[in-house]
Amino acid sequence: MSTKKANRQTILEIFRAVEHRDEQSVFELCQPDVEFCWPPSLPYGGQTRGLTHGERRWRDTWIPLQPTEAQRRMDPRVVAAGDDEVVVLWMQRGVSPAGDRFEGEVLGLYRLKDSKLARAQMFYFDTAALVGFLAKANSAARQTDLAALQLPLME
After folding, report:
1. What's the chain's average pLDDT?
2. What is the pTM of this model?
3. Strand-pair partners of 154
4. CA-CA distances (angstroms) from residue 82 to 47, 78, 143?
5. CATH topology of domain 3-149
6. Dist CA 64 CA 110 (whole Å)
């Protein structure tokens, strides 16, 4: 199998693992010091290294917003593949506690080293819409949490 084809296959396996919340497979398909680069305006934005750091991560934001398979589906499509990089167009989906929905395209540039993901940089097509959705979702989640705390007091 060519390097380009192997890289394409590895990246699509990572997407499948993320969609199925298979953290073990994600760990196995990434370098220990994998670097993630997200737009800085996002709650998980900036650059991070490794999968186990204590900073806010993509999964901390999105797992609560993707309760069903439909929201977890990313529909990755490889746009280009080279000897050490793969470009993928994928969809970010979510639903807030209040029922607001987000669906937006993302272009990811993925660098591989020794057949494992070494660097991922994501480019959202509409970061402003995403930031607005996440702010509303966070606000709705806080209101839901407060309502749950007040319920026992009302009984």
Report:
1. 88
2. 0.86
3. none
4. 23, 11, 47
5. Nuclear Transport Factor 2; Chain: A, (3.10.450)
6. 25
